[in-house]
């Protein structure tokens, strides 16, 4: 009974994590409602194409070729107290692309800037840089009915074949230096500007580095390793050694998943993570204890060896310390919401 209750508890926590990993948003804007954008954007006209650019985040894209080599864009998205952006990529990758990003700060002042996305790190994405040749005085950001509108015009013969959309964390606005923290969610779409066909605006949420880190660590060290420990605790009284093989197998898979998550975690910066230094330090300690447990398996004495009882004590103490640190780690930052 105790085993069943414990397993159900861990499963319920994991399912709760999956259901809270993202929140749906709704926008008041749509392609059938153009009154707001026509009153807010001076260069907007009825000749603009309108697309549901990213349905899961309610992004709407309006665009038109307004001159031989001039393209005009209006992106609308729900106001979640976060930045929103649209990037232009030649190959579908965010790296080495250029993007227009906008937000309203805490004083309700609108900010819209071009960024060069050199890498995944914030420091590699400087503001007021990029490969988009913007029409002078064409950039505009506005708010209407809890919807943000980003408008701008670009000089180019042909737009890039891929568009990238991104939204930041709610409440996590850029600082005064305008550098961006890692996005909360993003999507990439293949885009044919001439035909107005857009394909594959699929969300990449759940596949950012931070979420890979969270998911792997929770699956490995938060779910499988405790289950493996319970297998040893509740079934070791059985004479058949199947419990031991099951215990070792579950622990090794859990350790491998957690190790992969930690490796990914080393590549993350402190943005969006509470008590980052403590979180990282505890993660390293838990990793060391996990490695010691894995190494201890190789040095496990046979049951008749007098050293076996000392090995058992050490094994149990490492497990208990590791579990306590994991619980502390979990409550410090249960989710990476990047």
From TrEMBL:
CDD domains reported for this sequence: Cyt_b561_FRRS1_like, DOMON_DOH
Residue stretches spanning the membrane: 213-232, 244-266, 281-299
Predominant place of localization: membrane
Entry annotated with the keyword Transmembrane: yes
Subcellular location: Membrane
Gene Ontology cellular-component annotations: membrane
Tree of life domain: Eukaryota
Keywords assigned by UniProt, alphabetized: Electron transport, Membrane, Signal, Transmembrane, Transmembrane helix, Transport
Residues of the DOMON domain: 57-168
PANTHER family noted in UniProt: CYTOCHROME B561 AND DOMON DOMAIN-CONTAINING PROTEIN, OS01G0895300 PROTEIN
Name recorded for this polypeptide: Cytochrome b561 and DOMON domain-containing protein
Source organism: Rhynchospora pubera
Lineage per the UniProt record: Eukaryota, Viridiplantae, Streptophyta, Embryophyta, Tracheophyta
């Amino acid at each position: 009974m105790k085993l069943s209750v414990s397993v159900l508890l861990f499963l319920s926590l994991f399912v709760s994590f999956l259901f809270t990993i993202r929140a749906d948003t709704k926008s008041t804007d749509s392609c059938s409602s153009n009154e707001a954008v026509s009153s807010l954007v001076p260069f907007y006209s009825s000749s603009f194409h309108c697309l549901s650019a990213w349905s899961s985040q309610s992004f709407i894209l309006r665009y038109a070729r307004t001159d031989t080599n001039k393209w005009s864009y209006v992106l609308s998205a729900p106001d979640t107290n976060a930045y929103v952006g649209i990037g232009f990529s030649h190959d579908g990758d965010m790296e080495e692309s250029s993007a227009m990003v906008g937000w309203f700060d805490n004083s309700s002042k609108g900010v819209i800037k071009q960024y060069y996305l050199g890498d995944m790190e914030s420091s590699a994405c400087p503001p007021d840089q990029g490969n988009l040749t913007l029409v002078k005085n064409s950039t505009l950001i506005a708010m209407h009915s809890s919807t943000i509108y980003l408008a701008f015009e670009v000089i180019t013969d042909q737009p890039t074949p891929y568009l990238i959309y991104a939204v930041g964390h709610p409440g996590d606005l850029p600082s005064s230096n305008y550098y961006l923290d890692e996005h909360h969610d993003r999507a990439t779409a293949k885009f044919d500007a001439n035909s107005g066909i857009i394909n594959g605006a699929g969300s990449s949420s759940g596949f950012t580095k931070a979420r890979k880190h969270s998911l792997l660590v929770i699956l490995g060290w938060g779910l499988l390793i405790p289950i493996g420990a319970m297998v040893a605790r509740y079934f070791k009284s059985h004479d058949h050694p199947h419990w031991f093989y099951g215990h070792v197998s579950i622990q090794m898979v859990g350790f491998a998943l957690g190790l992969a998550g930690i490796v990914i975690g080393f590549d993350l910066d402190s943005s969006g993570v509470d008590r980052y230094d403590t979180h990282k330090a505890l993660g390293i300690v838990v990793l060391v204890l996990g490695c010691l447990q894995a190494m201890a398996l190789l040095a496990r004495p046979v049951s008749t060896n007098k050293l076996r009882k000392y090995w058992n004590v050490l094994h149990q103490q490492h497990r208990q310390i590791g579990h306590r640190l994991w619980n502390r780690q979990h409550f410090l930052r249960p989710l990476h919401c990047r």
